[in-house]
Amino acid sequence: MPDPALQVVSLFDKAKNAVAAWLDGIGPDFAARETSPGSQAKLYSWRLAEFREGLKARLVLPLDFPATPAQVYISKELCLVLPHVEEDGRVCHSIRPKPGDYDSPAHAVGDVLTDFQRFVDACRDADWVDKEFQSERTAYWIRYSDAVRVRHQLNTPRKIRAAVGSFEGYVDGDLALYRRQPPSKRANIALATVGTVDANVLSHRHGWARGVYQKGHTLFVRMPDEARWTPNTWARSFGELQLLIEGWTGQEVELSKWLKDKQDGKEHSYLIVLIQGPATFGYYILPPPVPGLTEPNAVPVNVERVDADWGLARDHQLPILHNRRSKRVLLLGCGSLGSPIAELLARAGAGYLSLVDMQTFKPENTSRHVLGYSSTDNFKAVELALKLRKEVPGLKVDGRAAIASNFVEVAVSEKQFDLVIDCTGESAVRVLLGRLAEGLLANTPVAMAWAEPMCAAGHLVWLNAGDSWPQSDPADVAVNIAKWNADTAVRLPACGVSFHPYGASDIWQIAAFCCERLLSHIDGAQGSSTVWTWTRGTKFFEELGEVAPEKWSS
To answer: Transmembrane residues, as ranges (predicted)?
Structure first.
């Protein structure tokens, strides 16, 4: 049997040889094949005839052509002169590999050359060039700022992040830098925050505060929506940046004065963050080479957004996100179902979560829980809250090691929460919440979620404010799809200890099912109180064998 690896290589070689025969047949007036330096070995690359006066191009077939399409290279000096040209001169084309490319590789190359010809023709239009730079302005700014830093070996932070909040026009902000120990003087990371938000506190929250802390200052400026930000308009000096900011702020901000006002005799760093829609562009201000005689150095830098609007929604459909962030949710039970529901709600933008669970995390929970070994013997609710607080921006979350029923009865006040979710799976908690629906929780919707043994089915009960769960707790007789045998659970050698076998992929399907419906109501969907059920197919129950339920319906 042929070696599969050799078979794949032969497919690539066959396709490239077919292209070589086609191009060599056309002749050198169109494409002259290149040879390896110092030898006569022919490469899978060709020098192409000039597509326009002075523009020289090379066609290259990648090693895995046609799985990766042919590439066209022009002078790398045209990077940031023409759009869609990488630092090495490669032109980013729009051709994607197609199933028929292995059978018609020459046609695949022809598509690339046709696309390149369209690119060359379009570049004759200066307005098209400018619009292309503007439409992908973030990518070009990153390329430009990286090139400036490498070329001049400038002492700017390796990573600069910004939590951009809501403001109009311009606003001062904080800056936290974390420098590596000497001999390196370059900061490893910097975080800028808007207004009074403490950048150092936020950095510690998300685990970014690594190194020696230095405080700095940030100026955030919103650019007009109509302003072009392209290689032709970038500020390339402190003076040019100052003129732009004066124009955008109606002469209210003079950058040199802003710098002077921030100086207090201590060593600080200064960052300017320009914002246009979802895009951010930065200038890191370095001291003037000759103080008093030369202006400061405004170094272009890439600024990565880390605020909740960007991290959770990429600025898309923000009214939905902002509505979710206003909601206060109490979640009872942080086990294998409650913990993924909590995480899904947090990552979907829920603004405040209060998590309650009395149990500690055990190693054997790992296969079905969002926590892991680092949380062993710690309270689930507390550990989950710590994890979500670190990983999800803008979230307010607390974890309480408490018995769910006691916590609701003692610690919850009327109208404290916008939604109560019970994930304990305990009849006693469901009955208590049913009673409280006529008093403490009369104005609060309640949801109850649980899974049947082996995750054969999952259920979500939604109760509108004022509706209550029957005191008979009809979960088994009116909701669950199966009547399970007593020996379904796997017994362990301890008093009353057993478990149902299932894993994360099983229970998280139910968690996602429940969370989708919870978010629909959080987002404002109207409807009557109801029960939703997710269930396995018939084959699942048929294959359970001796642990199959006495009766079931799917």
So the answer is: none
Sign of the CA dihedral 368, 369, 370, 373?
negative
Q: Comparing C-alpha atoms, which of 358, 347, 348, 406 is closest to residue 381?
A: 358
Predicted confidence (pLDDT) at residue 4 exceeds the cutoff of 60: no
65-101 pLDDT per residue, tens: 999 999 999 999 999 999 999 999 999 999 999 999 9
- Say if residue 122 is exposed, middle or buried (CB neighbours under 10 Å; 0-12, 13-18, 19+): middle
Q: What is the pLDDT of residue 342?
A: 98
User: 401: buried, middle or exposed (CB in 10 Å: 19+, 13-18, 0-12)?
Assistant: middle
User: What are 270's strand-pairing partners?
Assistant: 217, 285
Distances in whole angstroms, Cα of residue 28 to Cα of each of 22, 33, 115, 205: 12, 7, 21, 62
Pair 331, 400: CB distance under 8 Å: no
Sheet with strand 457-463: strands edge to edge: 396-400, 352-356, 328-332, 419-422, 446-451, 457-463, 530-535
Report the C-alpha gap between 55 and 74 in whole angstroms. Answer: 7
- Tokens representing residue 417 in the block: 């929460």
pLDDT at 8 over 70: no
pLDDT, residue 9, reads 53
- Whether 183 shows a pLDDT value over 60: the answer reads no
Q: Which residue stretches of 234-379 are H helix?
A: 238-248, 255-262, 308-313, 318-325, 338-347
Question: Does residue 6 have a pLDDT over 70?
Answer: no
Which of left, alpha, beta for 349 (phi over 0: left; psi -120 to 50: alpha)? Answer: left
Residue 403's nearest CA partner among 376, 370, 426, 436 is: 426
Beta strands 530-535 and 457-463, pairing class: antiparallel
Continuous segment of H or E residues that includes residue 435: helix 427-436
**pLDDT exceeds cutoff 90 at 522:** yes
Question: E strand or H helix at 352, and its extent?
Answer: strand 352-356
The residues pairing with 299 across neighbouring beta strands, listed in sequence order, are 284
Mean residue pLDDT of the chain comes to: 92
pLDDT at 554 over 60: no
Q: Could you tell me the pTM of the whole model?
A: 0.90
Collapsed DSSP state (helix, strand, coil) of residue 197: coil
What is the reported pLDDT for 544?
Answer: 82
Nearest to 231 by CA among 145, 342, 316, 321: 145
For residue 64, give the amino acid letter.
D
**Are 330 and 412 contacting, i.e. CB atoms less than 8 angstroms apart?**
yes
Q: Answer whether 321's CB lies under 8 Å from 393's CB.
A: no
**Tokens linked to 362:** 């055990």
Q: What is the 3-state secondary structure (H, E, C) of 372-395?
A: CHHHCCCEHHHHHHHHHHHHCCCC
What is the spatial distance between Cα 238 and Cα 295, in angstroms, rounded to a whole number?
7
Condensed to tens digits (0 to 9), the pLDDT of residues 250-298 reads: 999 999 999 999 988 888 899 999 999 999 999 999 988 888 789 999 9
Dihedral pair phi/psi, residue 159, rounded to 5°: -130, 135
DSSP 136-150: THHHHHHHHHHHHHH
